[in-house]
Each structure stands twice: as C-alpha cells, then as structure tokens.
Amino acid sequence: MSAVDDDTPSPLAPPARVRRHVALLSSTAATLRLWLWAAAAGAIAAGSTLAFRWLTVQIEWVFTRQDSGLVEAARAIAAWQRPIVCAIGGLLAGLVLQYGARWVARGKQGDHYLDYIDAARQGRVDLNDRANLMRTVSAALSIGTGASIGREGPMVQLAAWGSAWLARIAPIRPEQRSAIMVCGIAAGIAAAYHAPVAGVVFVLELALGFFARHTVAPVLIASGTASALVYVMVDPKPLYATTPMAMVPSSIVFTLIASIAFGGFGWGFLKLVERSRLLFCRIASPALRLGLGGLLVGGLSAFTPEVWGNGYSVVSRALAGTDPWQWLALVLVTKVIATSWSSGSGAIGGMFTPSLFVGAAAGGVMAQVAALWLPTAWVGDPRSLVVIGMAAVLTAATHAPLMAITMVLEMTNEFQLTVPVMLACAVSYAISTQFGARPLYGNPIEAVR
C-alpha cells in the first residue's frame, strides 16, 4: 500500500479556496480584456464606416463634380451623361474583380471565398485580405458612380475585415477571437444605420442563430462604442429624421391586410434579383457584366435620376408624406428594376437599404390610395404605413423579423408604432417563408457546418 494516497494534496499546494479565487480573478481579467478589445472593434467599425463614406464621395466627385448625394448628382448632370458615368463605373468595378481575382489567387493568407457571415457562423477569423481589399475597391467604384445598391453592406464588410485583423493580433484566448470579429459586424451595422440594438440583433439572429451567449456582452459594448463615435463625429440624430406619428388602433386591420402585400413585395423583389443574376451570369467577363449593368441603370436614370444610390433621399421624402402616390409608384418600379440590374450584374453593395426603399415606397403608395377610398380612422397617418412597410419588406427579404423591427424603429425613432410594426413583420415573414424565397443572408442554423 502506498504511503501517500494519490488524492492527497501536496503540503506545498495552496488551499482549494485560494485556487478558486485565483481562477476567478484570472477569468475576470480575461473577460475584461475581451470587453476592451470589443470596444476597440467598435472604434474600428466607426472609422471604417466613415472612411468608406468618404471614399465613395470622392469617386462621386471625380465622375460628376458633385458631392451632395447621388440623386442630387444625377440631377445636376445632363441626362445623356448618366448612362456614361454608370457604365464606366461598372466597367471599372468589373475590371477590379476580373483582374483582382488573379491577384487574390496568388496570395496564400486566408480563405479566398470566405464571407464574413459564414466566418462568424463557423467561428473563424481568417478572412482573405486581398479578396476584401478587391471587393472594397470594386464596391466603392460601383456605388460612387450611381449603382442602385446600398453602401452600408460594404461598410459592414469593411468593419468585419478590420475586426478580423484585430482578432488575429489581440492577446486574448483563441476561443475569444471569433467574438471580436462578430463585434465588428454588429458595430458596422450600428455605425452604418445609427441602430446599435439592431446591430446586436443582426449578429445574434442572422450570424450566430442565438447560440452564443458568451458573445452578447462584447457585442453590446462594440455596437454601443461604434454608435457613440458616429454620433459624436457625424450626427446624433436617427438616420431618418421624422415628425411624430400617431398610432391609430382602428388602423390595425388595414395594416394587417397591407402586410400581406408587403410580404409579396419582398418575395417578388428577391425573385427578381435572383432571376437577374441568372441572366447576367451568361456573360463570363465580370468587366462586361458590370459594365452592361451600369449602362442599363444609367439609361434608366436618364429618365428617373432617383434610381442612383441606395434610395435614402426617396425614403426620407416618403416619410415626410409630401410626394403624390403616382410619383412614388413610378420611382418604386424603376428602382426595383435598377436594383435587380445592379445586383444581378455582380456589383458589390448592400441590399438592406434597397429593401427599406421598396417597403417605404410601397407603403406610401398604398396609404395614399387607401386614403382616397377609406375613412381616415381606418388608414391612420399615411406616413406610419411607410415605416411599417420598411420593416415588413426587410423582414421578407432577410427572414429576420426581430432585426427588422429593431432596425426600423431605431432608424426612425417611431417607437410608438411598435405594435403595428411587429404584427406586420409577423405576417410578412409568414408570407415570404411560405413561398420558399431564399433570404439575403441564408438561414444561420442551416448554414452552420
């Protein structure tokens, strides 16, 4: 029999209580370090958002000698110049992708085809530097020359890329590195849309599928940091400044009926973009593909300059309720077509803001037409249906109702519309998923592998 039992602690070992305290302090220190790096990821997201915005404005100036916004720039130049600007911008963006792909293939660092959403779902941070640089330059050329897509998507991509770099060099535990990149994604959403809560919900609902409770605190810190910095450096107001809108309880029935249409609009928008991509894929050269897409969008902008850019100015006007429904309907149809051409041709840019545009314009048209036939108590404030439409169509396009609800309410500061927005998103989600439309970012649970 052994003189000393294997389970007997060594006389030199510290007491169990001391060991527990040391382990607790070590764990607390690691958590605090993670929170500090999360705040740094938020700062990187704010900086990258402002840098990309500046870059697109410079490109806009080079091609149009205007820097007051893309729709204003399109109106300021002659109608015959708009197709030329869009075509040249698309051609250059395509050339960057075409020849940049060879440059990316020669590199060895990171996965060439790993998207930041896929990386978050897989717990990876090895985004390819060359691929992200190429996509950023191409996106800036497309967006700066009037492509009918959002600049917010590349902003979030740039924030994710910067935070992925931070995750590689930060002195933190290996299992915490992916959390830093997730923080960058949330912070990018927060900075681009002035919607910090929506940034958190975005990564939990779309990127992680609600399976990362240890990531919640750092994501909140990063999103809040990015929003605070953007508020200080840019504007403390919501993205869309609106006057208060009253919620009329008797209008709920009309809202639910309209939500069926919103779900159909979102589903149809996704299908149109998907069909456009299939058609453009027949052109092998990215340069020719994007050049043709730019030419088509430019030709359409010769008659409707509002198709340039992400549709921010039109959404603001729809929220003001000053434009007639006939004009909104015209811009809605042309913008949907232009966005399907820009996205279908392969232009790199966001689809969130175009989805918000579709919902806002459709809501404005339906509210004004309904007001001609129905009592005011049934329709309520026509502008409220613009807000509801934004959230409902975004839900149909992303299959992420919680993110859509929080994002739109934060962007407009119309929280009194929470109940009709929630009901509309529920109906829109049911309609869109019923017909099997593939959402913009896929299903996070199905995508985890």
SSE topology:
Layout: H1 16-64, H2 70-76, H3 81-106, H4 116-122, H5 129-144, H6 152-169, H7 177-193, H8 196-207, H9 216-233, H10 252-280, H11 286-301, H12 312-320, H13 325-344, H14 352-373, H15 376-379, H16 382-398, H17 401-412, H18 418-434, H19 444-447
Transmembrane segments: 34-55, 84-105, 179-204, 216-234, 246-267, 279-304, 324-344, 356-379, 385-405, 417-437
Organism: Scleromatobacter humisilvae
Subcellular location: Membrane
Sum up the structure in keywords.
single chain; 449 residues; mainly alpha; globular; disordered N terminus; disordered C terminus; transport; ion transport; transmembrane helix
**SSE topology string:** HHHHHHHHHHHHHHHHHHH
The pLDDT mean sits at 84
Shape type: globular
Largest sheet, in brief, is: none
Membrane topology: Multi-pass membrane protein
Subcellular location: Membrane
InterPro entries: Cl-channel_core, ClC, ClC-type_chloride_channel
GO molecular function: chloride channel activity
Account of the protein in words:
It comes from Scleromatobacter humisilvae. It is a multi-pass membrane protein. It is found in: Membrane. The protein is an all-alpha fold and 449 residues long. 71% of the residues lie in helices and 0% in strands. It is built from 19 helices and no strands. The model is unreliable at 1-5 and 442-449 (pLDDT under 50).
Compact overview of the structure:
By secondary structure, the chain is mostly helical. The protein is built from 19 helices and no strands. The chain is globular.
